[in-house]
Amino acid sequence: MLHLQIKNLIQVGRRHGFTERAFGNSCTRKQALVEKIFKRKTQPGYAFLTLPDAEANLKKIKQYVKEQEKNKWANIVVLGIGGSALGAIAVRDALKSEFAKGPKLYILDNIDPAYTTELLSNIHLAKTLFVVISKSGTTTEPMIQYGLVKEMLQKKFPANYQKHLVFVTDPKGGLLRKIAKEEKITAFDIPPKIGGRFSVLTNVGLLPCALAGIDIGGLLKGAREMREAIKRSKGMHNPALALAVAQFMLDKKKKKAVTVLMPYCNYLFRVGDWYRQLLAESIGKSRRAGPTPINALGTTDQHSQLQLWNDGPNNKFIIFMRVLRHATNPKVGKILPEEIGFLNGKKFGEVMDAAYLGTSQALTKHQRPNVTIEVPQVDARSLGALFMLFEFQVALLGLLYKVNAFNQPGVEHSKQITKKILKGDEK
Ligand code: PA5
User: Which of 81, 84, 152, 265 is the S-S candidate for 133 at Cβ 3.0 to 4.6 Å?
Assistant: First the structure.
């Protein structure tokens, strides 16, 4: 199970952090918000809490994946953007290495003309299944991608192009649902009460990952375990509550308006992209609400951003992710020269962990508040737990900042203007 280590919030001192007592009291005062969220679990937005129990849907996905085995797909290509892509990217990068066997999972979450051409001309179309994901079914990016792909498929396989397509969309509304019905394309549902950035544990994230051979049952199990841990633990021992209260109070009382997420693990790096959207789109709703998320990777960013964090403006809250057991852990032989002889015989994981400790301790000495999420190992269970932890934390932040964490008017606005420009109504 994941563990949140908060000692450096105390060790930075009161000016930029908290005393243990004050922090504990603040968490206890906000405990009622945890219960409030559990009570709202069937309401729009908060329904993400019910996803780990969707057994019937899990069976449906597994059944579909089994049926698809006969097609021997070499490539699964997702067409989707934002909440319809970032979850699957995070899962893929954590759990399916680029060197792993089985179908490749590509996620085309942009409409860069050259990259789109390069990808589509380098995959074997006959061996490719396209998963078109859009809750609204009207988002410009996936729809233009779909148009291009459909044209290619119809040209090449006029009799059965539908075989190469599966949709994930709203159960009733939207254009994709309409097309699916008219053209007899298989379509999976996105529960109407779940918003894009909270949808990784729906068919949005689960279907493409299952098609790529990833253990989606493990994701749901981890999420379920974390939800139960959040339900039963109190005050500062509740990881979602402690994380939310720390972030909120550091922003409001200590002027830490920037949140850095820094895993010491390549496989967890894209969880940062997923979290960046979750935090930015959910909480960035008014001039007084919206911590700015920044992504980093340890140890790489020690040699890039750390200087700024240690000595620059003291306006950041840093969340580390530390992996306790790496899948493999090579050791350097005793071949390095005397000047760096202390590295001889060391395991890579040991050196990476020393770098994490060095960085977190240096930041603490510079009075830069930081916490650490300890991840037992990178597997489906831990990843599911991370998704639930962060989603719950952001739901709590919505209540703390008193904003609607589940809408995105700013995104909708830009979508509308873009459409007007493309229709020629606006320049
Ligand atoms: O979190 C959100 O709601 C957004 O980021 C959406 O996921 C994104 O805009 C894509 O929308 P749709 O799935 O309707 O195509």
Answer: 84
